[in-house]
Inverse folding.
């Protein structure tokens, strides 16, 4: 009884002071030049400016998994931080 009543509320995707609803039907930018220097994005503070200002970007559909949309073996095997907007 109680679990079923809560289930409907837990899956509700509405806006609240803690959650902002976003549409996921667009393209996202991803840096095209991945670095072996993993903390580089933090050092360059990429989160403070648009990604296209830091170099070339790839455009990927949202939602998607960036590893699966390319035939580039390096991107397919990449495991680390990824900056996107």
């Amino acid at each position: 009884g109680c679990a079923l009543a809560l289930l409907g509320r837990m899956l509700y995707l509405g806006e609240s002071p803690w959650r902002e609803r976003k549409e996921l039907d667009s393209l996202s930018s991803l840096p095209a030049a991945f670095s072996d220097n993993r903390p580089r994005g933090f050092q360059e503070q990429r989160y403070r400016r648009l990604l296209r200002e830091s170099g070339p970007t790839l455009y990927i559909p949202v939602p998607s998994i960036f590893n699966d949309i390319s035939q580039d073996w390096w991107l397919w095997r990449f495991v680390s931080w990824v900056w996107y907007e």
